[in-house]
């Protein structure tokens, strides 16, 4: 079934302060949407709110994945429904190996009794790690513990590939990647492009979008999508920065700090 994800009127607050002020995005299966925007404009908050981070209180709106509102679901249900987030700052979990974590995550999304076999899991993981040019020892390291910035990002892509999600949100997956790793990660994303998967890619740089061609580019300011366009919008932002957008829209302070 083709995937359809529609965020409508999403508002979210943290500690009583409204950060997201009404977000609307519609992602169809096969599409890649990029979100760009200056620092502190609500991009990561959007990702966290969609995934159900407990700190963010959704005050209104819906996020329908094939007709079902993920905002009404528990966090684990969202993952099971096919939502995936690669975080801007992936957490380290001491004592849990990367492969144990991945296998539990996969099995948590399956019915009891139809867990993935160990052999199949290992074969899959090894294959994906090879694609991502990861050293096999990373399977046995504790999750993200002591991983370099770029190693963490690559590991997030490994998780994405193994979990086969319907909606993939990547929050600054390109930050900290060297030039070769950027290409490897982009190849990983492109290999996952399909009619039943949609992508929301948060990035600051056109660089990533040279490798992953978005269908739509959205600019976020003041907790809202203030402008949308095609890949040419990202190119113009790269060349000219955000001042022209602010001028065009009469925005003085783009952050969510002001009312
Ligand atoms: N847990 C929190 N406590 C207090 N303020 C928060 C919290 N989370 C987010 N904010 C504030 O909300 C605003 C938006 O933050 P967010 O992380 O969504 O920005 P961003 O667009 O992802 O920025 P960047 O490009 O720098 O990653 C910021 O001003 C931030 O300080
Ligand atoms: Mg952010």
Automatic annotation (TrEMBL):
Provide the alphabetized UniProt keywords.
ATP-binding, Nucleotide-binding
Q: Where is the ABC transporter domain?
A: 5-247
Tell me yes or no: is Nucleotide-binding among this UniProt entry's keywords.
yes
Q: Entry's Pfam families?
A: ABC_tran
Whether Magnesium counts among this entry's keywords is no
- Read off the InterPro entries from this record: AAA+_ATPase, ABC_transporter-like_ATP-bd, ABC_transporter-like_CS, FeS-cluster_ATPase_SufC, P-loop_NTPase
One Gene Ontology MF term: ATP hydrolysis activity
Q: Where is the signal peptide?
A: none
Query: Could you tell me which SMART domains the record lists for this protein?
Result: AAA
- List the SUPFAM superfamilies hit by this protein, alphabetically: P-loop containing nucleoside triphosphate hydrolases
* Listed Gene3D superfamilies: P-loop containing nucleotide triphosphate hydrolases (3.40.50.300)
CDD domains noted in UniProt = ABC_FeS_Assembly
Q: Please report which protein family the annotation says this sequence is part of.
A: Belongs to the ABC transporter superfamily. Ycf16 family.
What name goes with this protein?
Answer: Fe-S cluster assembly ATPase SufC
Organism in which the protein naturally occurs? Paenibacillus sambharensis
Gene symbol here is sufC
